[in-house]
Each structure stands twice: as structure tokens, then as C-alpha cells.
């Protein structure tokens, strides 16, 4: 059972805004996080009384990177250095020194000196921030899949742990369901960004303090962030390949409550253009010309690249820790290639013997092309400048100059072949693991 105020009679009493005392752990705050907590949870219980959650899917993104500089509303310009217009338009000049996206110059493992910065290379950027901005937005279908799964196997919504959370992009989604969200990351820079983001989110959603807590640590140390068997959902999005999978899984299992959920998500950063073979061929030639540099950003060292090449098949789920009959191994948009669809260029070819998947585990493959509900959202409409922005995010604005001919070719083909001459549809390959703690 997950932690509740009455579970810890020996803990000190701390005040909350309505003046009522509540038991609160020093590291993981009480799930009673607002004056209306009981009313909110009753409403959540009512909404979740069925077997599925009512989450809208397929909603269009409003991110300027998705809709590009040329759209029905006309050209749009802003000061976001990752905006496509900021990277290409001769009508717009970005002040790279003052743009809020960049961090002060300092040595940190999470920054690439000069990436997306000024020509002088004086403005380092958080590489994961850049990568996330030009990858797919986490769609409502992912939210629905994870929360539906958890609802089927657990009745507790007290505490979620966002492991390796970086800047906390997925934490607000968890906060919609769980009374408390703990955020951990190996990087102090990531935690600082997530703390700022969650403070803003809490203010906008009128939540009181204590809904989020933070700790500095690797996913392999996730059990150190909470008492054993107290976490209802442990999730890691786009980071499992950086870990020692055996240690990470056992650490998560140590913290998970009985019937608690472990959720892992990984997507391939190289998208495909669908329904337009000529444009897709030109796009894949661009990716091939990138070489190894982007993969050093996305995957890190050789171990990370090899593990990423397996989708999530490198992750073991020991039968003594997880109920194998409830495990789900899901892939989306693999074009029937399975885990091979994640192969990193230059990394060792993945062999079947490398798989850590138990023979009894359930596998499922979904396709956006067949409009499967589980796959919705991993397709987006973009314009030609999106590919320039994506390249700049992984290689840097100076690096994109080497690919001007590639960008022009892609743009010309889109103009010639797209029904509206502006937009094409791209899709990403995704791997998801969902498991239930015994």
C-alpha cells in the first residue's frame, strides 16, 4: 500500500495552508497537497471508475516547431533560438547572448559548448533540452496507455517517481493523477530546470507546495529516494539506455509497492516522412550524412548506443520481481522490424541473443498507418524548416551549414509533392515497457 498520512504516526506534524496538521515525510511530502485534495481525489476516483481513462488523443500540437514558419496564419517570428524561423529567416535576428534558452557558461556533463549558440561559440545549451524540443511531443495516447495499465493493476495513486527526469517534461502529466511526484536526475542542472518548471506549473494549477520533491541521483539509485515498497508508479522516459539495466530495474522494484507499475519509454530520434517516398528518401539521405555526432548526443557511449539499438529489449524483468503474465512489451511504427528498427548507425548489429525478454512476456506492435489508438500521436505535421531545427539541435547551428543542399532538396520536394506545398507528415518509432510489481 502506498504512503498515506495515517501510515506514519511517528512522523512530525507539519502545517498546511488550511491550518490542519498532516504527517509529512522529510523527503516525500504527504499526498494531502491542497485544501481540496480529498475532493480532487474523489473526482479522480469517479472518473476512473471504468476500465479506461477519458484522455483525448490526436490533439494537434501548437508548438511553432511543428507548424513551421510558413503556415495558414502567415510567417511567425519569436526569440526562441530553437524556432525554425530563428535559425533560418533573414528577416529575424536572435540575440544568442540573452536568449533565455541558454545557460551561463560553465562546465557540466549536460551541456555542449557552443551547440545552438552564437558563431563565437559562447553560449552552451543543455543538450537534452534541445533534443526534446525537436523530437515528438509526448502524445495523449502515451498518457492513456500508461495510466490505463496502472489502473487495471493497481488502485493506488499516491506517489509517482519520475526517474532520470531531466527538466521534468513528463512530471506534470504524472501530477494529474498522483497526489505526489518525486523527480530525480543525475544532473543538478536538470533538477534545477525541473524545479523551476514545476514551480511554474504548480502556480498555474493552483497547487500548494509539497506536491513535488527532488533528489539528485541516477536511476540505478532510485530506491534511495523513497522507502521500500511505497512508490505506485516508477517511470523513465528516454533514458533507460544510459543505465545499467539490471541495477536500474532492481532499484525500481525495491521502491515499488505491491502491484506498482514500472513504465519505460524510448523513441527513435530519426523520424520518417510518411506518404511521400521522394521526400522521405531525401530526408534519410540527410540523416545518413550526419555521421556519428548526433548519436553521441542521443545515446552517449558505446554501451548506450548498443542498448538503444535494441529498443527496450535489453531491459530484464525478473520473474521473481514482476508478474510476467501482466507485462507488456509494446512497439509503435516499427514497419514490422521489431527492435531492429532502433538500430543506431555504426553500433554493433543487435543479435537475438542480446535480448533480455522473457519468452512468456506479451509483445504488441502498433502502427499509426492503421490508426491504432495506441499509436496515435506519434505522427505530426511539419514543414521543411523543422528538419533544419532538428539538425541544429543535435549538431549545432554552425553544423547545419554543411547541409544546405540537403535542406533545399527536401524543401523543393515538399513544395512539389505535398498537397498544400508546405507540410508533410512525420512519424517516430517507439518502444514501451509496462510491468507490474509482485
Automatic annotation (TrEMBL):
Keyword flag Methyltransferase: yes
Alphabetized Gene3D superfamilies for the sequence: Vaccinia Virus protein VP39 (3.40.50.150)
One annotated GO molecular function: methyltransferase activity
InterPro entries: Diverse_substrate_MTase, SAM-dependent_MTases_sf
Keywords noted in UniProt: Methyltransferase, Transferase
GO biological-process terms attached to the record: methylation
Ranges for region Disordered: 1-41, 353-377
Bias (Basic and acidic residues): 353-366
The keyword Transferase is annotated on this UniProt entry: yes
Name of the protein this chain belongs to: Methyltransferase type 11 domain-containing protein
Amino acid at each position: 500500500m502506498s504512503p498515506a498520512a495515517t501510515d506514519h504516526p511517528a512522523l512530525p506534524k507539519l502545517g498546511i495552508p488550511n491550518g490542519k496538521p498532516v504527517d509529512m515525510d522529510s523527503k516525500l511530502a504527504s499526498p494531502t497537497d491542497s485544501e481540496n485534495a480529498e475532493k480532487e481525489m474523489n473526482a479522480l476516483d469517479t472518473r476512473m471508475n471504468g476500465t479506461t481513462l477519458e484522455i483525448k488523443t490526436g490533439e494537434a500540437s501548437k508548438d511553432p516547431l511543428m507548424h513551421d514558419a510558413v503556415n495558414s496564419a502567415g510567417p511567425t517570428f519569436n526569440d526562441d533560438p530553437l524556432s525554425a524561423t530563428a535559425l533560418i529567416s533573414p528577416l529575424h535576428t536572435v540575440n544568442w547572448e540573452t536568449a533565455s534558452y541558454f545557460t551561463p557558461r560553465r562546465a557540466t556533463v549536460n551541456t555542449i559548448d557552443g551547440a545552438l549558440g552564437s558563431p563565437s561559440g559562447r553560449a552552451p545549451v543543455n543538450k537534452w533540452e534541445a533534443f526534446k524540443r525537436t523530437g515528438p511531443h509526448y502524445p495523449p495516447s502515451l498518457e492513456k496507455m500508461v495510466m490505463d495499465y496502472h489502473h487495471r493493476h493497481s488502485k493506488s495513486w499516491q506517489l509517482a517517481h519520475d526517474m532520470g527526469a531531466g527538466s521534468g517534461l513528463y512530471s506534470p502529466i504524472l501530477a494529474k493523477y498522483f497526489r505526489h511526484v518525486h523527480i530525480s536526475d543525475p544532473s543538478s542542472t536538470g533538477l534545477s530546470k525541473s524545479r523551476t518548471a514545476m514551480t511554474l506549473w504548480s502556480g498555474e494549477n493552483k497547487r500548494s507546495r509539497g506536491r513535488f520533491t527532488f533528489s539528485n541521483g541516477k536511476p540505478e539509485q532510485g530506491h534511495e529516494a523513497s522507502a521500500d515498497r511505497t512508490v505506485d508508479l516508477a517511470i523513465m522516459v528516454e533514458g533507460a539506455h544510459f543505465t545499467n539495466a539490471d541495477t536500474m530495474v532492481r532499484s525500481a522494484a525495491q521502491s515499488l509497492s505491491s502491484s506498482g507499475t514500472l513504465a519505460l519509454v524510448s523513441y527513435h530520434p530519426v523520424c520518417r516522412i510518411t506518404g511521400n517516398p521522394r521526400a522521405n528518401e531525401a530526408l534519410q539521405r540527410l540523416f545518413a550524412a550526419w555521421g556519428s555526432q548526433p548519436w553521441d548526443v542521443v545515446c552517449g557511449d558505446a554501451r548506450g548506443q548498443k542498448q538503444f539499438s535494441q529498443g527496450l529489449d535489453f531491459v530484464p524483468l525478473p520473474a521473481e520481481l514482476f508478474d510476467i503474465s501482466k507485462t507488456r512489451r509494446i512497439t509503435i511504427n516499427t514497419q514490422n522490424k521489431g527492435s531492429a528498427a532502433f538500430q543506431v548507425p555504426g553500433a554493433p548489429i543487435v543479435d537475438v541473443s542480446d535480448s533480455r525478454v522473457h519468452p512468456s512476456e506479451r509483445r504488441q506492435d502498433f502502427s499509426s498507418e492503421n490508426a491504432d489508438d495506441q499509436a496515435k500521436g506519434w505522427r505530426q505535421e511539419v514543414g521543411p524548416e523543422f528538419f533544419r531545427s532538428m539538425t541544429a539541435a543535435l549538431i549545432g547551428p554552425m553544423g547545419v551549414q554543411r547541409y544546405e543542399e540537403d535542406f533545399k532538396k527536401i524543401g523543393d520536394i515538399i513544395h512539389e509533392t505535398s498537397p498544400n506545398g508546405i507540410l508533410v507528415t512525420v512519424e517516430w518509432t517507439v518502444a514501451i515497457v509496462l510491468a507490474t510489481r509482485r
